Amino acid sequence: MTLSRLIYISAKPPLPSGEIFEIQQQAMRNNARDELTGVLLFNRTCFLQCLEGERVTVTRTFTVIAADDRHHRVELLSMADTDRRAYPDWSMGLLDVDSPAIRVVLDEVVPGGLLPANLSGENSRLLLDRLRGVHLTRRTAVLPSLRPAAMPDLTAPNA
What are 24-63's pLDDT values in tens digits? Predict the structure, then answer.
């Protein structure tokens, strides 16, 4: 099996309230079945997603995503074989780039913001590598150094 990592960006149309969480739940079910992992970053206008898994499965999944009406102007930024998964425990992490902790990393790596014109394969890989240290919580995504002690870490068992 050849392990691959694919990163793409797409324009996101306005979605009904809560649909982003439905997308995440569907992706989590499908990705668990297909042994894929990854993360989906989003803002009001874009999706940036990393998919990891067996090359054929990643490619097939990307083809389905590119045909989905919730994605417009899909652009492949990077496709490469890898020795290990960057997000081994996330069937599909969901990160809102408006979260303050995510914004700190985004502004450092991609100063112009999450827009197709500002992203390349190189800086999208760097952004996703930097975001691996982000912890998911019930309300937002925060870097470990910024997470208040009282805020639960949902990546921990029984959180």
Answer: 899 999 999 999 999 999 998 999 999 999 999 999 999 9
pTM equals 0.81
The candidate with the shortest Cα–Cα distance to 21, out of 95, 84, 127, is 95
Q: Give me 128's structure tokens.
A: 């996703």
Q: What φ, ψ does residue 70 adopt, rounded to 5°?
A: -85, 0
> Which one of 77-81, 127-131, 132-136 scores highest in mean pLDDT?
77-81
Structural contact between residues 48 and 130, judged by C-beta atoms closer than 8 angstroms = no
Question: Is residue 113 a contact partner of residue 45, using CB atoms and an 8 Å limit?
Answer: no
Task: Give me the pLDDT at residue 53, please.
Answer: 97
Q: Copy the structure tokens of residue 75.
A: 């652009």
Residue spans per domain, the chain: 3-146
Cβ atoms of residues 85 and 3 within 8 Å: yes
CATH number of 3-146: 3.30.70.100
The token duo for 65 is 């995503």
Torsions phi, psi for 74 (to 5 deg): -70, 130
